[in-house]
Model the fold of this input.
Amino acid sequence: MAVNVLYIRTLIVLFIALVSSSEARRARRWGATKIGDLSSYRDQVPLSNGVFFYATIYFIPSFSTDSLPSPSRGLKVKAITLGRGTQNYTCPSNSSDPPTAVGAVADLFDLSPLLQYLPNSEGVHVINELPKYLINFHLATIERSPIPNLGHHYFDAAGVPTFDLGQKIGILKGKRDAGIAAPKKASKGPEGKGGGAVDWLALCAVAGSKRLQMGYRVETAGGKAPKSCKGQPEKIQVQYAAQYWFYG
Done:
């Protein structure tokens, strides 16, 4: 059974229409309000940045790829989210040095209600395409849509990347375990313009985490800083979108 690319694209168009629909914004509802069953997606997190083909119901990677480590044995998927926000940087004045990364902020939107309406063989194909489309939407537009806002991503006072998904799911304070470059086909930013897509990451839990032990940032769009601080303000916010998977 081959994956129907036209079908997937149609679903994406419908999803985007849902995000931007004024009626949907007023309704503020989309599927169930609780996290859907994600057990069947446990091993479907994208881990490779190679070129993929829709040859069968599974992705077939090219031979020259970099990959992130697989989820640790025994862990379960606790949430699959779409992150939309900014990667943040600073620049010293009158410098041609590259900007310095100082963290990120993002809202994390629950994708499980969408997955519950899709065949398991096609759900991941659809959500993998979403960041490169939703990078073109202002965050306020997504916030007003019926997509549930599950939590927030920020860096704490100690500079630790933090993902707060509430009391029922937990908190991940992450340490970079591995990273690979985003695929060349990844969106560079809104309308395809920008410095490029930030790396894909695997994160392991550190002190302060609650119930979550691993996280992944994949399918990134945008977020990379300009190559030089020349002509840039002291503080730079670069729009980005990404898919985040959380395990516990």
